[in-house]
Each structure stands twice: as structure tokens, then as C-alpha cells.
Amino acid sequence: MFEVLKNFIKDEEGISTVEIVVIIAILVGIALLFKNSIVSFVKKIITNFIDADVNPNDIQNQAPLAD
Fold first, then answer.
1. CA distances for 1 relative to 9, 13, 14, 31, angstroms
2. pTM confidence score
């Protein structure tokens, strides 16, 4: 059992913790660069979703409504 754990720790295949941290740091950096654009996009989507006045009869290819 100890040998299996020892071999698992020494195994260099796959993705390591350092690589995951670097990828997360890059994604956070990109998100910070485009923060204003992302926030305005999400606000626009939420506003459109909340303010939408949808008539179910206007939707094409809809499933039949349950009685």
C-alpha cells in the first residue's frame, strides 16, 4: 500500500497543481481586463430577460402547454 502511494506521488503524468494555479491566474487576469465589458454584458442580458414581455403564442415550435 505504501509503495502504491509513493508511486502515485512520484508520478509526473497529467496536470500538476502548479499548472492549475497558472491557468486560474491567467483566467482571473483576463476577467479583470474585461471586467467592465463582462459586467455590462451581464446587466444587459438580465435587463432584457426581466423586461421581456413574452406572449406564449408568439413562440414558434413550442411544446404543447399542459392543461
1. 13, 20, 22, 43
2. 0.48
